[in-house]
Design goal:
Largest sheet: 12 strands, parallel
CATH topology of the largest domain: Pectate Lyase C-like
Strand order of the largest sheet: 1-4-7-10-13-16-19-22-25-28-31-33
Number of helices: 0
Shape: elongated
Strand content: 35-45%
Number of domains: 2
Radius of gyration: 19 Å
């Protein structure tokens, strides 16, 4: 199904399957796709590109191709109350090259790579979602990706709950900066690595989050990264509350860092961390 050149319309209660792309919205297209099953496509289940808009709500989007169950490339849709899962070849959602949009109250799980990846100047808002049991990170922000992730629960992912990094394929493009998102009012717990891992020149603001019961550190910072961690409760993690290594730096302020298995801090020599008003 393709909607383009300011096309509109409503598609609901349909089973959309077994093509290259399930739903493609581009060039100002602005449809409503509601209560559909979108699955079995070789590229993406939903692909919004080149100023496409639209509302996708109440849909079950699963088992699509390597580009992701949902791919947003220079588009700005609203995706609401959907299940986005079981992509055995790719990501749950991929925002790339100024892909925007609002994702609300979705469940994003059991994808081969990250549940949500924000890449190369992608800048969505992801709000009130459950992101869990993905084979890599719950949310990965890389290659100058931005975005706001708020009021989400991010748990039981095989890598870290949130990764902020440079990433990308250096044979395709030279990327000198990491991601720089805002992660706000989230619960990040039970992940197989760190709760939040910031590396490869990553930045970002992590504020008012509960980061707990992750296998390694609550927050790990490395490789020249410089995030701000503010007003968070970081507890019950398998290693330190905050670990900083490989010339990492950053600011940690107003956080509760008590009750982690190996204490509050592990700051390697040469790392510069500003620490203010924390409870240890």
């Amino acid at each position: 199904m393709r909607v383009y050149e300011q096309g509109t319309g409503t598609v609901e209660g349909c089973d959309i399957f077994d093509k290259s792309t399930g739903v493609e919205i581009s060039d100002g297209g602005d449809p409503t796709v509601r209560n559909c099953k979108i699955h079995g496509h070789t590229a993406s289940g939903v692909h919004v590109l080149e100023q496409g808009k639209g509302t996708v709500e109440g849909c079950d989007i699963f088992a699509n191709g390597f580009l992701g169950n949902v791919m947003i490339w220079k588009g700005d849709p609203t995706i609401r109350d959907c299940k986005i899962h079981d992509n055995k070849r790719g990501k749950g959602m991929w925002f790339v090259e100024q892909g925007k949009g609002t994702v609300e109250r979705c469940e994003i799980f059991a994808n081969k790579f990250s549940g949500v990846e924000i890449f190369w100047m992608g800048d969505p808002t992801v709000r009130g979602c459950k992101i869990h049991d993905n084979e890599q990170a719950g949310v990965a922000i890389c290659a100058q990706g931005k975005g706001t992730v708020e009021h989400c629960e991010i748990f039981a992912n095989k890598f870290s709950g949130v990764e902020i990094k440079k990433g990308g394929d250096p044979t395709v493009m030279a990327i000198e900066q990491g991601g720089d998102p805002t992660i706000r009012d989230c619960k990040i717990h039970g992940n197989e690595q760190a709760g939040v891992h910031v590396f490869e020149q990553g930045k970002g603001t992590i504020e008012r989050c509960e980061i707990f019961a992750n296998k390694f550190s609550g927050v790990a910072i490395g490789q020249g990264s410089d995030p701000t961690v503010r007003g968070c409760r970081i507890s019950g993690n398998g290693h330190k509350a905050v670990s900083v290594h490989d010339e990492g730096c950053g600011t940690v302020e107003g956080c509760d860092l008590r009750d982690n298995r190996q204490g509050a801090w592990n700051i390697a020599p040469g790392c510069q961390v500003q620490r203010r008003d924390n409870r240890e």
